[in-house]
Amino acid sequence: MIIYPSMKEFKVALFIGRFQPFHNGHLFSLKKCLELADEVIVGVGSSQESGTENNPWNFETRKMMVETLSGVSRKVKIVAIPDNPSDQIWLQEVKRLAGKFDVVVSNNDWVLSIMKSAGYTVFETGLYNRDELEGVKIRAMMRAGEEGWKLRVPEEVAGQIDVSAVNKFNSL
% helix / strand / coil in the chain, to the nearest 5? Predict the structure, then answer.
C-alpha cells in the first residue's frame, strides 16, 4: 500500500497541557499531533486555575495563546479541562468536553496512564529541549525581567503574553 503524506494514522488526536505559558516544547508536541491526526483537540488542563504562581493565566488567555499560532489554529479545537480529584470523573469529563478522539498525545505519565487504562492509544512525543522549555523556568525568567523567555515561546505567543500576570509573584 502506498502511503501519501496527506494520509494520517488517526482522525482526531487529543493533546492536554496546562500551557502556563504555551511554549516551543508544546508547539513541538502539537506539530507531532498534526502529523498523526487530521484534527487535534487541545485540552487546556487545570482550566479553572488562574492567578497563582504556577497557574498565572486563565483559560481564555491560554486558549488565545494557541489560537494565535499561524498555520495551526485552523486545525485545532480548544476545550477547557478542569481538574478533578477522581481519575474516573476526570476521564468522563474529558470525554464529555472534548468529544470523540482516537489517540492521546502527552508526555504526562498521569494522563497517559488514565487514557491507556481506558483503552485509548497513547503516544509520547518526548520532552523537546526540556532544559530550556519548562513552564516553571520560563515563568521565573519573566519574573526576573529576562527577555530570553521570548525565545522559548512561539513568536505569536510572545507578542500576546501579559507578563504582569506572572510579575505579581515577584515578592514571594
Answer: 40, 15, 45
